[in-house]
Specification:
The protein is an all-beta fold. It folds into five domains: 110 residues, Immunoglobulin-like (Sandwich), CATH 2.60.40; 97 residues, Macroglobulin (MG2) domain (Immunoglobulin-like), CATH 2.60.40.1930; 100 residues, Sandwich (Immunoglobulin-like); 117 residues, Immunoglobulin-like (Sandwich); 61 residues, no CATH class. Helix content is 3%, strand content 48%. It has three helices and 35 strands. Strands 1, 2, 3, 6 and 9 form a five-stranded mixed β-sheet that branches. A five-stranded mixed β-sheet has the order 18-24-23-20-21, with no helix packed on it. It has a four-stranded antiparallel β-sheet with strand order 5-4-7-8, with no helix packed on it. The protein is flat.
Length: 538
């Protein structure tokens, strides 16, 4: 339902507000339309009320043209006529064809725009008065229907449906509204169940369908259509009718080494949420190439529990393995209950020392470069003093299962050795990274991944530390969200503004919040707050 569906630009917040009249070097027009007071009333005889202000001391006459434009600026409906405006403000009431409006829901009308044009007599020598108004701002008499149902239903049980009809501009409930409910099971339109309810003084209506005990369909659909006069709004939801159980698959740990044993456990429940006792389950394990490495059929206990053990071969390829459990006989049934979990097989060698990499800042602004201090300590606490260091920028690091090695793109190496204190300072130039920033990007920052390799010259052992640093275009990040889906034409929606430093620390700031409109093409400018098409809200 569109009495006004809020649409906000993320860094400043953007909405439609006012379109300035065009001037072609002629005498300024003495007519204008008070757009804030325009009303488009939806009733049995729809009327557009246009407050026209004549600032001259003479009666102005001419022709007017009103158009309804879709989102592609295509004219869908129009009304033309003559006007005669006396000095002061006159509310022109223009009837709109009901046939066009009755074929559309009020919610879809809200996405249209009203284009008005007042052309005075040629001898007056003034430019036409015209403008665009988002229809959702001026609609009166709109309504919204909402429906709440369960996502799953069981054959033979009741299926309750809860309806609410209200005015989306202010949330006021609309009582006495007839709502037609239609419930369909699968594609069986002929046997659809229908019922009509009426909303109470709170705008609610509740009805429970009696579902048949035998249903062949996998899903059902319930539709609610609310009618007020010649206008109607509908909403449709689907629900699941499939009766299936649930499998939960767990392992004793996520990481294994070749030669170890992986303990697998499956917990099975039926559609009635009771333990699946005496059921055959198929447990399989596949590698990254999709080749099966383990296959076993197990039977659940009276508590719905089944287990299996996988003896990992010593020469098994390292990488990620998919463990899959499903009911026997339903391996190819996508809708059958199943469970998956990923385990990793990798060799682990205890390091002889650990590497530390400490950036001098939590984030970096344009013009700033990073200084990284690299050090290493043996496991018994003594610092590593005699070592070579290599610092690189890493991208796209991943495990190559076929080649059995880590593959990464490394660039901009910085090499050196530890000083007497067991430290090495690397200067990292970040200016090229700032050049790749997109000014319109929502985040305005980027995390760069680095790796510090330290080679102990006494043992020739190499250890590494991967870390990230954050170049950011702005020291403070602003985020704007809306708490309301709808707002009244004469009220501002609820807005929530959060601010934080680039490292995520909350920041207390002050500033201005702008409310802006699109241009004539229906698009928002990159910086609308710098022009005349915006208004300061706070």
């Amino acid at each position: 339902m569109a009495c006004l569906r809020a649409s906000y630009a993320v860094c400043v917040l953007i909405l439609s507000f006012l379109l300035a009249s065009h001037s072609f070097g002629q005498t300024p027009p003495s007519l204008r339309v008070d757009e804030q007071q325009i009303k488009f009333r939806l009733n049995s005889h729809p009327v557009v009320e246009l407050p026209v202000v004549n600032t001259s001391e003479k009666t102005q006459v001419g022709d007017f043209r009103l158009e309804l434009l879709d989102s592609n600026n295509k004219v869908e409906s129009l009304v033309t006529g003559r006007f005669q405006e006396k000095p002061g403000t006159t509310v022109e009431k223009v009837e709109w064809p009901l046939d066009y409006l009755a074929n559309m829901s009020p919610s879809s009308l809200g996405w249209r725009r009203l284009h008005y044009s007042f052309v005075q007599r040629p001898e007056v020598g003034v430019a036409p008065v015209e403008g665009f108004v988002q229809l959702s701002r001026v609609l009166v008499g709109v309504f919204e229907v909402r429906m709440t149902v369960a996502s799953k239903a069981k054959p033979g049980n009741k299926f309750p449906v809860r309806i609410r009809v209200d005015d989306p501009s202010n949330g006021k409930p609309l009582h006495g509204t007839a709502v037609d409910l239609t419930l369909e099971l699968g594609d069986d339109d002929d046997n659809a169940i229908r019922h009509t309810v009426t909303t109470d003084y709170s705008g609610y209506a509740v009805y429970s369908f009696d579902l048949p005990k035998e249903i062949q369909a996998d899903e059902g659909t319930v539709k609610a259509e609310a009618k007020r006069g010649p206008y109607s709004e509908d909403v449709e939801l689907t629900f699941d009718l499939r009766s299936k159980g649930k499998l939960t698959l767990t392992t004793d740990k996520p990481l294994y080494q070749p030669g170890q044993q992986a303990h697998l456990r499956v917990l099975a429940f039926g559609p009635d949420k009771r333990a699946f006792a005496g059921k055959d389950l198929v447990v399989t394990i596949e590698d990254e190439d999709g080749d099966e490495q383990f296959h076993e059929t197990v039977k659940t206990s009276r508590f719905g529990v089944a287990s299996a053990d996988w003896d990992i071969p010593q020469k098994l390829c390292l990488g990620d393995y998919q463990v899959h459990a499903t009911l026997k006989g339903s391996e190819d049934d996508y809708d059958a209950p199943q469970a998956r979990v990923t385990v990793r097989v990798s060799r682990y060698e205890l390091p002889t020392f650990t590497v530390k990499a400490d950036p001098d800042r939590k984030y970096y602004l344009p013009g700033e470069d990073a200084t990284i201090t690299i050090s290493a300590d043996y496991l018994f606490g003594k610092p590593v003093r005699n070592a070579n260091v290599r610092l690189v920028n890493q991208q796209n690091r991943h495990w190559d299962f076929k080649e059995q090695k880590w593959v990464t793109e490394e660039s901009n190496p910085i090499e050196g050795t530890f000083d007497k204190e067991g430290r090495f300072e690397a200067k990292v130039d970040l200016q090229n990274d700032f050049k790749d920033f997109n000014p319109e990007d929502y985040s305005h920052y980027e995390d760069l991944t680095f790796a510090a390799y330290v080679t102990d010259l006494s043992t020739k052992r190499t250890e590494q530390r991967r870390f990230r640093i954050r170049p950011t275009e702005r020291p403070i990040q602003l985020y704007v969200t809306s708490g309301d889906s709808w707002s009244a034409p004469d009220k501002h929606p609820s807005l929530y503004v959060t601010s934080s430093y680039a490292d995520g620390t909350p920041a207390s700031v002050s500033g201005a919040l702008y409310f802006a409109e699109p241009n004539n093409a229906g698009e928002f400018e990159k910086a609308p707050w710098q022009g005349g098409r915006s208004k300061v809200l706070a």
